[in-house]
Amino acid sequence: MCIKYAANKCLGRTMNTNSLTFLNVILALVFVLECVGAGEPNPCIGYQCKKNQRCISNYGRPQCIALDLNCTKDEVVGDCGNVCEPTCADANGQKRECPALCGPPACVCKPNTYRYNGTCVSAKVCKQNGTDDNGGVTPCSRFPCPSGYQCSEGAVICTSDGCVTRPTQCVPESCPDILGCNNVTCPRNMERVTCYPLCELDCAGGDSCPGTQCNSLGRCVCKKGYVLVFRENRRLGCVKKNDCACTYDSN
């Protein structure tokens, strides 16, 4: 089961195991903890607001406020956000990863139209122009997130098996206290960040790729000026680039 996070309620639904990824699991965990409450209960759970409104906690009481979404004439408000909004990449048959989660409401293109360089176009235009200049990824500058969320910009990730597009999405800014994220101590020469690069450089050169990924759980990454040391596919830590020639023990 996964959790569907709507504008003002949490609902259970069955997850498509074909789209079960580490990203899905992490996001589902965060949303589950937000739904059941970490500390004070969420008064918005089960509280219904009118269309184009969302619920916030006002000193422990539910309150409906405007979504503050300025959609264009070619867009409508998507109740589950725009994580899986169709783009020209979809119209042209490009495989994209789509988390089986429902996010905060957002502006999306009207049915049977596709996102292309920030605008909504027909499938015919997609066929003529191909995918947009960033492979169907919506930049955070065109991806507003509601209060309490931050933008995690997507990217086109290519491997020997082909390329997939990780969509841009809104993720919670803060980590639930129950997880103790703020008490995490990173190893030497590393620091915990909530937005981190999709690919980290290592002593072997590594693979660089565009974009960052954000989530409230965060992760430990090398500090600026340091690179990863790997041995037998294990992360041993971070060292200065000039120290990569040294031999490191995994013990």
From TrEMBL:
<dbReference type="InterPro" id="IPR002919">
    <property type="entry name" value="TIL_dom"/>
</dbReference>
<keyword id="KW-0732">Signal</keyword>
<keyword id="KW-0646">Protease inhibitor</keyword>
<dbReference type="InterPro" id="IPR036084">
    <property type="entry name" value="Ser_inhib-like_sf"/>
</dbReference>
<feature type="signal peptide">
    <location>
        <begin position="1"/>
        <end position="38"/>
    </location>
</feature>
<keyword id="KW-0722">Serine protease inhibitor</keyword>
<feature type="domain" description="TIL">
    <location>
        <begin position="71"/>
        <end position="126"/>
    </location>
</feature>
<dbReference type="GO" id="GO:0004867">
    <property type="term" value="F:serine-type endopeptidase inhibitor activity"/>
</dbReference>
<dbReference type="Pfam" id="PF01826">
    <property type="entry name" value="TIL"/>
</dbReference>
<protein>
    <submittedName>
        <fullName>Trypsin Inhibitor like cysteine rich domain protein</fullName>
    </submittedName>
</protein>
